[in-house]
Write a structure and sequence with these properties.
Order of helices and strands of chain B: EEHHEEHHEE
CATH architecture of chain B: 2-Layer Sandwich
Number of domains of chain A: 1
Largest interface: A-B, 24 and 27 residues
Number of strands of chain A: 5
Strand order of the largest sheet of chain A: 1-2-3-4-5
CATH topology of chain A: Transcription Regulator spoIIAA
Largest sheet of chain B: 6 strands, antiparallel
Number of helices of chain B: 4
Order of helices and strands of chain A: EEHEHEHEH
CATH class of chain A: Alpha Beta
Number of domains of chain B: 1
Strand order of the largest sheet of chain B: 1-5-6-4-3-2
Radius of gyration of chain B: 15 Å
Shape of chain A: globular
Shape of chain B: globular
Strand content of chain A: 15-25%
Oligomer: heterodimer
CATH topology of chain B: Heat Shock Protein 90
Number of helices of chain A: 4
């Protein structure tokens, strides 16, 4: 099951539609990392709302996506982790340490905008300077 | 030959249909955890516990695929006195686990994974038992009880 990846401005949005096999998750990682370069994306949002389970392989793949995207110059936000999925993740001992998360797609987009990833002219400012 | 066992013995009467899921491809892992979630819903587990059970199944089913290439996951609804629950058994004829107590430690992996599969699944379930013999295979039995005070 291929995950559709939408381009919106400088962001890529991967919207997971159903349960994914390990191969599907690996395929998503490859596709996202390739598209960060192809579309010169500054931000990546992975919407996991429809994911039935977040197990150790899924978490490892999402971490890999975030780290690889960062190496390619894009920030990743994971959005839509459901409460029962979060509960099971904690029990499993799985964390997304160092990776941005947001409640839903709207919050994820707002986060990237705040960080300044959407604007070319703000590249040097990168998030911190527009405080004052 | 040494048989390593971890966990408490589990004796209880079982009712309901056994369901078997063959595990031979990564899509089977998804099918097994979804079948397990459906059975958990039939038993009356909360949505949260259904997800917890599905996550545990996902981990042990993936272990079959990773280490033994093929095996099966069986489900049994269980009634013990007034309690209801679900038993999940994952069995394979693979190489077996050399050191079961190490395999149960967080962060220990011989496959390059996160090493959270077995210990994580154990934390998710109420009871967890591993029987493994080198060269003969591994059987993992885990059980979750429905909480009655919710």
């Amino acid at each position: 099951m291929e995950v559709p990846i939408l381009k919106q401005g400088h962001y890529l949005i991967a919207s997971i539609q159903s349960a994914l096999s390990d191969a599907d998750l690996s395929q998503l990682r490859e596709a996202l990392i390739a598209r960060v370069g192809k579309f010169r994306a500054r931000g990546v949002i992975v919407d996991v709302t429809a994911l039935d389970v977040m197990d150790s392989f899924a978490v490892r793949t999402l971490r890999d996506i975030a780290h690889m995207a960062r190496l390619r110059g894009a920030e990743t936000v994971i959005v839509g982790i459901q409460p029962e999925v979060a509960f099971a993740m904690v029990q499993l001992g799985l964390t997304l340490k160092g990776i941005a998360t947001a409640l839903d797609l709207e919050e994820g987009l707002a986060f990237l905008d705040r960080q300044g990833h959407g604007r070319i002219d703000n590249r040097q400012g990168h998030g911190r300077i527009d405080r004052g | 030959m040494a048989v390593s066992t971890i966990g408490r013995g589990m004796g209880a009467s079982t009712v309901g249909d056994d369901l078997r899921c063959l595990i031979a491809a990564d899509t089977d892992v998804v099918q097994a955890r979804q079948a397990g979630r459906e059975l958990a819903a039939e038993v009356g587990f909360s949505a949260g516990d259904q997800t917890v059970i599905a996550a545990a199944i996902s981990e042990i089913a993936r272990n079959i695929l990773m280490y033994a290439k093929r095996g099966e996951v069986r489900f049994t609804k269980v009634v013990d006195g007034t309690r209801q629950g679900l038993i999940v058994v994952a069995e394979d004829d693979g190489p077996g686990i050399r050191d079961v107590s190490r395999a149960m430690q967080d962060g220990y992996s011989t496959s390059g994974g996160l090493g959270l599969g077995l210990p994580g699944a154990r934390r998710l379930m109420d009871e967890f038992e591993v029987v493994s013999a080198l060269g003969q295979g591994t059987r993992i039995t885990m059980r979750k009880w429905k909480r009655t005070n919710v």
